[in-house]
Amino acid sequence: MKSKNRPDKETYHMAKEFIVAIEIGSSKITGIAGLKSRDGGITVLAVAKEDSSESIRKGVAYNLDRTTSCLKKVISKLRGTLRTEIAYAYVGIGGQSIRSIKNTVIKELPDDTVISQDMVDELMDSNRSMSYPDQEILDAITQEYKVDMQYQLDPVGVQCTHLEGNFLNILWRSSYYRNLKKCLENAQIAIADVYIAPLALADSVLTEAERRSGCVLVDLGAQTTTVSVYYKNILRHLVVLPLGAYNITKDIASLQMEEQDAEYIKRRYASAYTDTKDIDDTLKYSIDQDRSIESHELIRIVEARLDEIISNVKNQIPEEYDGRLLGGLILTGGGAELNNIEEAFRRKIEINKIRTAKFVNQPVSSNHSDITAHNGMMNTVLGLLAKGNLNCAGSEISDDLFGNINHSTSVARPSESLQKPSETPINRQPEKPTPAESDVQTKDTDIVDEEDTKREPGALSKFGKSLKDFISKMASEEE
């Protein structure tokens, strides 16, 4: 009999190629395996989840043994469902170790100098060589270039004597890398590539019009809230706040009840906003046979915490974008499932256009209940899967007559769209950076007013390479 939440056996038998992605979250570690069609559609073959609340805090692994155990269980579940070994996996990173900071690199040029692509590349190399205490540059996103007194998105070919590159550097803590690296190695997970989870999420839930017109993406997670600001197709600000939906649960639990009961009360009765005329002072919600909670008390607790979260989100929207983010505010994540969440944000933040992204933009085929729920909780891991293009399938698993597991020696050949990595990224040697003669300083910059936008050529595509270079450097230092 076919399982409601699983593809049929014929699908497994034919799935010699698939992509695997893992999201490391504060409440759970989620693994997913699926196929991608040429038009970007996704077919989900398997989903696995493990509770990580006792091993990960605010997106950062603090109990390495338990995190390793969770990762092993996720891979084991995927492997058992697919009846195929997992050779590689894409990993999404986020949490409170991620933040962004602006940086400006200046280069003075002789008279009548025409800017070349090499000069632009030197600015980026100089930016990437910036040193931050106990932090490394995970990705660098070009904001704009200042050519003499004018701002340009593509300065190549322009004549000037003063060239200035404005960048947004995304940083992560070196200690986070070391812990994550150790957990993945102990779980025997070979990394196909590592992606910044908030960027993968944005690529899958934001529309082109929203990114171009300017918008705020708010991912309401369990222990963190991630705020990403886009303007003219470029990421302008990224921050992870140490507050999330779990804080609301703990606040409710402070009324002398178990967290499990508090979570139930939150999901069943809580509202992000309640009009004063709708408050019933006589209404009570039952916790169990002997206890109950008054409705107005629940409203007070929930709205107080939501006000704090929303106020922090508002403070993270740079003032230079006031009135300019015509794409509005987009909510997603499990916390966005709270009743009247859009109205709560609308009343606290002066943005009228607000929507909740309950699912990704790509067409997805799946019978799995976690996918079909369309509650925003699978958006990030689906976004990670959508970015993958390497075949993560290993050898096929089969049972003999005695129930023992046999591993086929044959490995599925990669297709044109799925290719095996030539080597594990964690062991790759970094290339020597190109030296640049320039002055470096950090400051805020103006926003370019041109309609056409352009990110540093290959900045997103170079992210995997730069991260692998960083991982190799860290590995060499440890040795």
UniProtKB/TrEMBL annotation:
Membrane topology, from the record: Peripheral membrane protein
Record-level GO cellular component terms: cell division site; cytoplasmic side of plasma membrane
Amino acid composition bias (Basic and acidic residues), ranges on this chain: 440-457
Location, primary (coarse class): membrane
Zinc-finger keyword on record: no
Compartmental location: Cell membrane
Domain SHS2 per the UniProt entry, residue ranges: 19-205
SMART domains found in the cross-reference section: FtsA
InterPro entries: ATPase_NBD, Cell_div_FtsA, FtsA/MreB, SHS2_FtsA
Stretches for region Disordered: 408-479
Gene Ontology BP, a term: FtsZ-dependent cytokinesis
UniProt entry keywords in alphabetical sequence: Cell cycle, Cell division, Cell membrane, Membrane
Biased composition (Polar residues): 408-427
Top-level taxon: Bacteria
TM annotation in the entry: none
PANTHER family per record: CELL DIVISION PROTEIN FTSA, CELL DIVISION PROTEIN FTSA-RELATED
Family affiliation: Belongs to the FtsA/MreB family.
Subunit structure: Self-interacts. Interacts with FtsZ.
Role noted for this protein: Cell division protein that is involved in the assembly of the Z ring. May serve as a membrane anchor for the Z ring.
The name this protein goes by in its record: Cell division protein FtsA
Gene name of the encoded protein: ftsA
